[in-house]
Amino acid sequence: MPRPLSEYQVRDWLRLRPILHRLKQARYDRVTRHYVELAARTGDLPALALALSNRRVMVTVAYQDPTAIDWQSRLVRRFVPAPIYMIADNSHDDAAARAIAAIAARDDRPYLRLPENPWAGPGASRSHGLALNWLWQNLIRPGAPEAFGFLDHDLFPTAADDPFAPLARQDFFGAVRPAGNRWFLWAGFCFFRFAAVRDLALDFGQDWFVGLDTGGANWWTLYRDADRTRLELQEFLAAAALPGVPLEECALHWCGVWLHEYGTERRVDLAALKRARIAEILKPLLEATARAAQRATGSTKSDAARSIPR
To answer: Where along the chain do its domains lie?
Structure first.
């Protein structure tokens, strides 16, 4: 929602910002209400929701990047195997969606292709928030899991982790993004105890009128009344992605043991080099994961062979 009227300055009133902000917010709300009523383009939504009951689930929002989903799916299986891992595809490109669906089928991952998103292109951040609101209303709430979390598609675990563990002591957990005296959990790594939020009007969209990015609209319903000093939260650190290139020009993030590629660059010409650097970091982990999968497959085949009557 727009910030309280008391927070607007005289110069804001002279530019009619309080009125304009409320008109824009009304438009965003109409788009959200319409979007969450649309059907998924692919996937058996009732069956997927039913499978979540009293389980822990991580939902990753895929967007135009089969390679990222390939890496994430394989590394999650190795390092975070217990929760359900589901792929919700927000891609607007059909070829990318087919490739992502093929990865989901290969890895036996639940898959949904979300409705066509009206905020494609420059509205990528707003598109992501709209996707999360659709998932909250149509998958998470009906499914009633024990706990749920949302992941960015370019976030990769590099060691064993249980991001749900802090929920035994608090209602939500994740990486904090501050905005003045407000704050919110980054939408790419946020986890919630369902019983604590099931009756709240959660909104995973933005609230740019007070400087809050995707997930920040939950400030009003969830974070505002929480004592941040008493919460266990995930450290979120920026690091230079390439040798000799300043962090502000090309960065990646460490979210605990999770490596985030982080797509926003001051120099877009470095994006391919950074992807190559990410591949270099993940290569030994992916190779070890492949070897472990091969051993497990071989063991399963051997067990099956021994069970055949002679």
So the answer is: 36-235
- Single-letter residue type at 308: I
CATH 3.40.50.1480 fits 36-235, yes or no: no
Angle at 42 between CA 40 and CA 43, to 5 degrees: 90
Residue 201, by phi and psi: left (phi above 0), alpha (psi -120 to 50) or beta? beta
pLDDT one-digit tens code per residue, 59-88 = 999 999 999 999 999 999 999 999 999 999
Mean pLDDT computed over 238-256: 91
Q: Which runs of consecutive H residues, i.e. helices, occur in 59-184?
A: 66-79, 94-106, 124-135, 141-143
Which residue has 């979210």 as its token pair?
A: 255
Distances in whole angstroms, Cα of residue 259 to Cα of each of 68, 146, 206, 255: 12, 26, 24, 6
- Residue that the structure tokens 């709240």 belong to: 200
Among the listed ranges 35-44, 124-133, 148-157, 251-260, which one has the minimum average pLDDT value? 124-133
Which pTM was predicted? 0.88
